[in-house]
Amino acid sequence: MSDKVRSTKLKFKGEKTKKKRKREDDSEERVGSSNKRKLDDQDPETWVLPENVNELRGPTFIMHPSDPSPISINFNSTTNRVVLSSLDKDKSEDSEPVSLLERVPTDVAQVWVTTRVAGSSTINLRTGTGEGKFLSCDSHGIVSADRDARGPQEEWTPVVLPDGMLAFMNVYEKYLSVDEVAGGSMQLRGDSEEVGFAERFWVKIQHKYKKEANEEEKKRKEGVGAPPKIDEGSTNHIYQAWGAGRLVVSKDDKKELKRARKEGRLAEAMLDRRSKLKSDRFC
């Protein structure tokens, strides 16, 4: 006797048997979960490429694929100047070649700290060494890092390009670029009108900040459906009053309020007079 369990589902003559269909997205889910585990298992200090501008935060390593040697944007704390340094200057003849995307900073002078104002598309780049100066660009395209406070000239708008590289636009809508000057030396400029080879940079951040940005974005998306809770009374006081809730109005508004109060008192007096005349008539 067979131990095979028979199905109790009734079948009718001529009825076609439906084959069980695997979910098409099973493989995608497995790949997605595998990538997530791989991302979570990474060392928080690992240097990775940002995939969008929101991930650009924290310690930042900026490189340019110059020829014959790639360079990094450094800050010399002794001279308080921005310098472009070859990434191959300490390379020995016996060392194996390393691709540009595998490069990581080996000196604190190569590291900048990216900060941003919440809700803003612009960033600030502060030196990771010295007293913490901000990278700035004036209206003539001169790039420097000698300011302790941030302002419009210290704001940069990062633009992620299709190949994963980044361009940086300043407040004058000009782009940061690598420029060759007399003698073959390189310097940073901030007056390029278009994005070409000189205006494209590879940027690396630490994995923990990329993960932090992704978690924030996930929370933001999950909270989109919830209606905002607004207390009109408190909101009006926040944005229209100060000092014990005193309402702030213009001179014209004060005149209108005064006139309205005067008209209101006049109307009340007329009503009182009419009611008094009516009562006297019936007496």
UniProtKB/TrEMBL annotation:
Belongs to the FRG1 family. Keywords: Nucleus. Transmembrane segments: none annotated. Gene3D superfamilies: 2.80.10.50. The keyword Nucleus applies. The lineage of its organism: Eukaryota, Fungi, Dikarya, Basidiomycota, Agaricomycotina. This is Actin-bundling protein. Residues 23-41, 213-234 have a biased composition (Basic and acidic residues). PANTHER family: FRG1 PROTEIN, FSHD REGION GENE 1. Pfam families: FRG1.
